[in-house]
Give the backbone structure.
Amino acid sequence: MVELSEIYANFVVELRRGVTNLVVLKQCQQPTYGYQLVKNLADRGIPLEANTVYPLLRRLEDQSLLRSDWDTSTDKPRKYYQITENGRQLLVQLTSYWRESVKNIESILES
């Protein structure tokens, strides 16, 4: 029999997976690098592992939702990611969908 705590952990992973794209796109409104993104999200209560964030950034870039540029002006070069126009349009759509879904889910949970 599966422990309730294990079931809960699996549900949380599934829920997080669904919102990670949304929060990453939102956080990339200004140029940001991977570690900064991980830290900013953790500070706001959304802890993500670097091994989750970096593949996600590359995938979003491959989908033309983010673009990247290297900053080599310091001793430690960093790859900065920023949302593209396609990413902005998708972010607006996802945000609208998210807000409507939360409203509907709240209605169900309160009944």
DSSP finds four helices and three strands in the chain. The mean pLDDT is 95. The longest strand covers residues 66-71. The longest helix spans residues 85-110.
